[in-house]
């Protein structure tokens, strides 16, 4: 695969993070992300041993939880 083919593929394929990477990137705990996946609050896929999440889904989760906390 040449560089232009790889660049085209990268534009089409979604970007995913592991639980640990998502927790670190968004300054939340591993358990926060993991529990949200298990509770069905965070869409994820598990193609192998690790769960994978989309960064934008983690941001949406954090926004929803923050909004809920501020309202409640």
Structure notes:
Strands 1-2 form a two-stranded antiparallel ribbon. It has four helices and two strands, in the order αβααβα. The longest helix has 17 residues. The model has no long low-confidence stretch (mean pLDDT 88). The chain has a single domain, classed as Multidrug-efflux Transporter Regulator, Chain: A, Domain 2 (Orthogonal Bundle), CATH 1.10.1660. The protein is mainly α and 72 residues long. This is Helix-turn-helix domain-containing protein.
What is this entry, summarized?
This is Helix-turn-helix domain-containing protein. This protein has 72 residues and is mainly alpha-helical.
Low-confidence stretches: none
Number of domains: 1
The level-1 CATH class = Mainly Alpha
Look at the structure and give the mean pLDDT.
88
| Proportion of strand residues | 5-15%
Q: Any idea of the CATH topology?
A: Multidrug-efflux Transporter Regulator, Chain: A, Domain 2
Organism: Phycicoccus avicenniae
InterPro entries: HTH_17
Protein name: Helix-turn-helix domain-containing protein
Key structural traits:
72 residues; mainly alpha; two-stranded antiparallel ribbon; 62% helix; HTH_17; Helix-turn-helix domain-containing protein
Write the layout of secondary structure elements.
Elements: H1 3-12, E1 17-18, H2 19-26, H3 30-39, E2 52-53, H4 55-71
Antiparallel strand pairs: 1-2
Helix pairs in contact: 2-3
């Amino acid at each position: 695969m040449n560089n232009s083919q790889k660049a085209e593929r990268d534009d089409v394929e979604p970007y995913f993070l592991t639980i640990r990477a998502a927790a670190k990137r968004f300054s939340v705990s591993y358990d926060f992300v993991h529990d949200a996946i298990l509770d069905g609050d965070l869409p994820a896929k598990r193609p192998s041993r690790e769960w994978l999440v989309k960064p934008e889904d983690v941001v949406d989760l954090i926004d929803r939880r923050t909004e809920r906390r501020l309202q409640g």
